[in-house]
Protein 1
Amino acid sequence: MDIWGDDPSFGLKKFFMGFPSETLLNELRTTLGKMEIALGMVPSAIAWTSSLGLIEWCNATFDLLVAQPHIQNLGADLRQVLPLQREGRVLPPETHPVHLALRGEKYFHEVYSLRTKGKPREIEISWTQIPIPKQEDIFVFLILDVTERRKAEQTVRQAAELAAVNKELGSFSYSVAHDLRTPLRSINGFSKILMEDCKDKLDDRALEYFQSIRSESKRMGQIIDALLNLSQVTRAGVRFARVNLSEIVQEIIKGFRNEPSGRQVEFIVAPGLIVDGDSNLIRLVLQNLLWNAWKFTIKKTQARIEFGMIQKDGIPTYFVKDNGVGFDMNYAEKLFGAFQRLHNLNDFPGNGIGLATAKKIIQRHKGNIWAEAAVDQGATFYFTLGEAVS
Amino acid sequence: MNSKNIILLVEDNPGDTLLALRALKQHEITHEIVVAHDGAEAVQYLLGTGTFMGRSIPLKPRLVLLDLKMPKIDGLEVLRRLRADSRTKILPVVILSTSKEEEDILKSYNLGANSYICKPIDFDQFTKAIENLGLYWLTLNEFCLPF
């Protein structure tokens, strides 16, 4: 709309016929002011430039994005106000999106890294060329900050990748376990067959060696099973429900008593200890702790194993206590690592994975597990569930 | 040949095959034991296709001992095909696998396995398992041909 007119006489005519009144001008100013405020509130940064790329106007979002005062942005070259990088490299001037826009090219959805004095941002730029009659075209640029969106996308992508890796790891340990067990069965089986079929040709020493091969292959089988358990504990989800610890302990103890060991062991079990947790996983923890207590009291004539609960800093702390051989507290931190053993295999058999598995399970319940012991003074294993005690 | 006297052992691992044969023989199981070395061979034998094509009625074994992890056609696929065919729908199939994975056990039962035995590594336990298995499926359990 040509308000003032090129022709002075025509403009003058208009002045008399209806020059915009003061009221109308005020109204226009107010509207423009409102629009400027409104445009400053949109999440996109908006700027328009001359055909040379000099900023004629920009909104408040734009000033925030480029971390520069409004007054400095006005009249500045948009290419310089937006220093861009792609894939870690500074964008050459001829591929700068502002340059492409001024050349009349269409925008494409590309993400650029914006490197101003402010925080590094990831942005997308789109634009429109607006023809103005009898004047040079102006260019309106719309800049969208996609940093947070990209971060969220990356998190989702990483989670998906992690799930895929976990799944792969699962099938990997599954096939390893399978592929290792089969040859072990052959080693064990054919040793036995040789012992039977070639009995006449083998002396006692040879038979003993074959027996060693058999028992060791069997032990390796147990280690593979325990490792598989450990990896399953790490991957499987925790299914929370009410778990009666006292009942589980009683069941495990019953299993010990059914074994023909001929041992006299005094068991003390506190009744009615109930927690929230995954019943199968917690059973595995208690099995490991009680089995250790059972194992390490084997040389005691009056073995005593106790399960109970105490309050430590107001947090229910469960314990399995025995009066067995104990251990040197200097090695306490080694206890919960996989394949760590503090005792000779001949004295106390084990695969060195039980406590590592127990720790994984307790961690998955957001609890803590630790031990207190002294050589020949017995050992006490404590654990918490839900709240970690330092 | 009386089909009541055949046990089909489906096993690809030569070591496991020999051990299973030995364990079976040790317990005076007098049945003839036919070995299929992979799933494809088992399907051919039982459903009378491929090498066994043209045989009027395939000889149905009294019991199938089926390994799961095998090349070409795996145990679960063999089981699926047997259960889909009216001639082998009710054939007793015992899974004899190295796997203890819950998923494998569940899939086997869902496909209609009659029993699932995890092969122990220790040969004494292995022969014990075969003995119990033979005792149950060949002696205690009543057998019936599909038609």
Note: The first helix of chain A runs from residue 8 to 18.
Protein 2
Amino acid sequence: MSGELVVFWCLATLVVLSAATAAFARSIVNAAYALFFSLLGIAGVYALLGADFLAVSQVVIYVGGIVVLVLFGILLTNRSLEELLQSKRRSQWLALVVGGGILAVQLAVLIGAIWPLRPETPAGSTTAPLGVLLLQKYVIPFEFASLTLLVALIGASYLVRRRERD
Amino acid sequence: MVTLYHYLLLSSVVFALGAATVVFRKNAVGVLVGVELILNAANINFVAFSRYTEHVMPLAGVSQPVALDGQVFAIFVMILAACEAAIALAIIINIFNRFGSIDVDEPSSLRG
């Protein structure tokens, strides 16, 4: 068993266990913290795949940004402590049926599919080629993404503004 | 030796857990957590395919042994996830101010 495989299974265990906690935890705050560890493990998976820039972006955007935003959302929208510690959920059977059904379909596709695989594994940093790719081939989507981000942030702050007359 | 199928297996499990979260939680922020898990599962697939599949595309000026288009798509997914989280939390806070709860079954005043 190679070192890469050991690292992969450690990361996969971390990601799956904390994602399962995020899915089924009783407290919504625990779910947000489990999401934190799951996203951190996924950053490790990106590093294992050789995507160094994406691993750092994952830590900065998801772990540093979105998880904090989710925690803010939780703490701004609760009425009582017991609502925080025991959030309302549907029946577990519904979740198990939906999740299990999706997993079964995906595994059925996965077992039957064959992709043209490359034999050797590339090495080296991906940051510089990614920058070239973003500013040459994907420059129009890149600019639209920045415009989307600007509009979304202005729209979000407009949505939560304090109304004067209501 | 870690293969493409290891990563695809991991991402299908994470996707299924995210979908289960979306249907399981009644709390709107909990649903948002599930959506983030689903987007991350898709991102793992993008990056894994970009690393392992045979698709070499020459790019001017840079010697590039591997096609990085999958990683570019993953970056766009991250950008849109950030937009989505900001807008969703703004909507959730509005719903809380109006209905006094973020239970996704509560705001039903628009039903026909």
Note: Chain B touches chain A through 79 residues (CB under 8 Å).
